Amino acid sequence: MDKLPTIRIGLVSISDRASSGVYLDEGLPALRSWLERAVSNPVEFVERLIPDEQAVIEDSLRALADQEGCALILTTGGTGPAPRDVTPEATLAVADRVMPGFGEQMRQVSLYYVPTAILSRQVGVIRGTSLILNLPGRPKAIQETLEGVKNAEGQVVVHGIFASVPYCIELMGGPYIETRAEVITAFRPKKK
Questions:
Q1: Where are the beta strands (DSSP E) in the chain?
Q2: What does the domain layout of the chain look like in residue ranges?
Q3: If I label 28, which of 16, 18, 19, 171 is the partner at 20 to 30 A Cα–Cα?
């Protein structure tokens, strides 16, 4: 491939307190930083910092997918069992199709680190030509979920979800995404 296409990626941090200025949001910087290290393509980020309100989350996801044309939308926060954690409900409400493997794999990665990963309700869905994934709220957990678990030698023990994201977006008719192998290797089946 000569020149890699520019990718539009939506980033949504969902937090009542951060969106009202009670504390500094860490989700958006963590997502942006990891993607800048992992993705070789030029990236245009479209960011939102919003409260834990289902209607606001739904509106934001619709706008990023339908008006902003983001091939990938990553959310952080609001996926636990607390009453205000409504990110999965909002994500499912705007979905055309559910991609259950993403949520399953995120929990598998997180369970390697903490037993409370079973409390996470993260989901992955497709809306139109956008892949929407709910990530954890903590920056360390965001990186672990995206990259996976590596042993002391740096070999992957449990695959992170981002290894499958470029091929998924390609299958959906989206742009070709190339990753930097020192961060994560995008998996694509070998051509016959």
A1: 7-14, 43-50, 72-76, 97-98, 124-127, 130-135, 148-150, 156-159
A2: 7-171
A3: 171
Structure tokens at 48: 């939102």
Residues 6+ positions from 174 with CB-CB distance below 8 Å:
71, 129, 131
CATH domain 7-171 topology = Molybdenum Cofactor Biosythetic Enzyme; Chain A (3.40.980)
| 85 pLDDT more than 60 | yes
Beta strands in 32-168 (DSSP E): 43-50, 72-76, 97-98, 124-127, 130-135, 148-150, 156-159
pLDDT in tens, 46-76: 999 999 999 999 999 999 999 999 999 999 9
Read off the pLDDT of residues 19-28 as tens digits, 9 standing for 90 and up: 877 888 899 9
| Token pair of 159 as six digits | 């695959």
Q: Which of 70, 71, 106 minimizes the C-alpha distance to 88?
A: 106
